[in-house]
Amino acid sequence: MHKMLADYQATQPYKGFKIVHNVPLTQTTLMKIACLKAAGADLVVTNPSFMNEDKEAIKILENEQIAYVPLQLVKGEFDFLLDCGAELVENCYTNKGIVELTRTGAMRYQQHKEFHVPIVSVDDTRLKCLETCLGTGEGVYRAITQIADTDLTGKNVLIFGFGKVGIGIAYYFSKITPNIIVAEADDERLKLIEQRGYQNVDARNSQAVEQAADKSDLIVTATGLKDIISDNYHPQAFKGKLLANAGAEDEFGFAFEASEILADKKPVNFILKEPTLIEFLDPIFYAHNIAIDDALNNKQTGFRALDKKTDESIVADWAEHHSWTLEKLNSIF
């Protein structure tokens, strides 16, 4: 982001563009917004409906004379919508393009059959794994190890789901224990779990899952499916274990009291002041801004992922800056 800031200050590529920015407003997000201001954009900043905005961040925006408007009041015509969760499209009109940050928002935009502008998704990218896999995985690991009353070194860990988030959680816990089992219902992912050196259990086999849960010290859900544990398994196999939810939904469900789950069933990494470290947010924030160029350079209308060359370039730059090899990243996701 610092590189982008310097480039934008020198070139002002979006001078005169009217842009509305709907991304969770935290003090971390301010660097992303500063880049757009440096680029010459006429900015309106708002905050998604699913979380509270940072009051100190609003004060900083006011000091910088950048308009903050609550989401329900944002409307009108803009050159670009920089969106999160496809929340801007109902009340805002764009004449140049839309950039979407999340999987949920991407799915909503894909459902719109006709659009008169490019819609660029930075979720459908390899670089998103840096945030969702490594960033969220590290945050979940950091939160659980900080608030657990016991040392988890060498303990038995059961993870539900081997999508981006589950892969990251398994990777970080593998640093302290070899005893990791992953429950998954997808046949291809079950094979992948074994290839990565973990034990697998078919999530469709309730008896096998309950046996794995009974032997576990820590159980983490990362499927994205509400009530998946209560709906499919006998809760007694899970009782008395250290339980944590890494999904936006309550994945343990109605058979469990909030007090039985770390962070009262909320996504456990959100108990942290920094749920995702800036090193993992940096590439996705960079991509969300620079995707404006994708829409300007390729004016084909409708939904698409960020340009592949841009995606690969960001991943390579990030890996070099943080002393990761591409081979190591390929072995994780």
Task: State the gist of this model.
Keywords: NAD, One-carbon metabolism. This protein is of the alpha/beta class. It has twelve helices and twelve strands.
Give an overview in words.
This protein has 333 residues and is of the alpha/beta class. The chain folds into two domains: 2-121 and 277-332, Adenosylhomocysteinase-like (Rossmann fold, 3-Layer(aba) Sandwich), CATH 3.40.50; 133-271, 3-Layer(aba) Sandwich (Rossmann fold). The protein has twelve helices and twelve strands. It has helices at 2-11, 30-38, 55-63, 103-111, 128-147, 164-173, 187-195, 206-214, 228-232, 278-297, 308-321, 326-332, and strands at residues 18-22, 42-46, 67-68, 76-83, 92-100, 118-121, 157-160, 180-184, 199-202, 218-221, 242-245, 302-305. The chain has a seven-stranded parallel β-sheet with strand order 3-2-1-4-5-6-12. A five-stranded parallel β-sheet has the order 9-8-7-10-11, sandwiched between helices. α2 (30-38) links the parallel β1 (18-22) and β2 (42-46). α1 runs parallel beside α2, α5 crosses α6 (164-173) and α5 packs antiparallel against α10. The protein starts with a helix and ends with a helix. 44% of the residues are buried. The model has no long low-confidence stretch (mean pLDDT 95).
